[in-house]
Amino acid sequence: MAYSIMIVGVGGQGTLLASRLIGDAMVRAGRDVKVSEVHGMSQRGGSVVTYVKYGDRVDSPIVDLGEADLILSFELLEAARWLPYLKTGGKLISNDRRIDPMPVITGAAKYPDGIDAAIRAAGADLTLLDALSLAVAAGSAKAVNVVLVGVAARQTDIPKEVWLESVRETVPPKFLEMNLKAFELGYAYGDK
């Protein structure tokens, strides 16, 4: 049986690093893992998604509608956009910050209110957190991705030390201490 994760956000938020961290941790834990490439307008601030599947045997990284066990979202509107992919009883972890899409920036549309309530009303098990504040506390607003990975890691059966080793091996040395702090803050939050 495979476990399916979608990592969704806006270009430039670090979805690729998040998928590499998750994939590396699963390999270290002895799981078969498939990780997709980034799909979307990652260079232009558009919507992006990566897939990570792991288990005893995984044939494809692609996650279809209603198949995601977990959606890890870097932005609330992206969480709503990809919600149809979450399976019944699935978990959605999202940063509470909003990043206005181009139609909102140009005034052609309004950023919707009540997104979190709509997600919960759809039956999703939503964990909504201020990952940006935790990332800043760790040393950089750019560490939101690792904070969210920490929150998600707490939901798995993979030992914390395996996750920390993945951070040590995946993150460039000059950003390592900050990202270890970001992971720890997310992991502690995931215990709430």
Structural features, described:
The protein has helices at 15-28, 76-82, 102-105, 115-121, 131-138, 144-153, 160-170, 176-189; strands at residues 2-10, 32-35, 39-40, 47-55, 68-73, 86-95, 125-129. It is of the alpha/beta class and 192 residues long. It has one domain (2-131, 159-172): 3-Layer(aba) Sandwich (Pyruvate-ferredoxin Oxidoreductase, domain 3), CATH 3.40.920. Strands 1, 2, 3, 4, 5, 6 and 7 form a 7-stranded mixed β-sheet that branches. α6 (144-153) packs across α8 (176-189). The longest helix is centred in the N-terminal third of the chain and has 14 residues, at 15-28. It is globular and about 45 Å long.
Secondary-structure element order, as H and E?
A: EHEEEEHEHHEHHHH
> Which band does the percent of strand residues land in?
15-25%
Total DSSP E strands: 7
First-to-last CA distance: 28 Å
Q: How many H/I helical runs?
A: 8
Largest sheet, if any? 7 strands, mixed
- Which parts are unreliable, with pLDDT below 50 for 5 consecutive residues or more? none
Shape: globular
CATH architect. name: 3-Layer(aba) Sandwich
Could you say how many structural domains there are in total?
Answer: 1
What is the mean predicted local confidence, pLDDT?
89
Rg result: 16 Å
Q: By CATH's scheme, which homologous superfamily applies? A: Pyruvate-ferredoxin oxidoreductase, PFOR, domain III
CATH fold assignment: Pyruvate-ferredoxin Oxidoreductase, domain 3
CATH class: Alpha Beta
Provide the structure class: alpha/beta
Secondary structure: helix percent: 25-40%
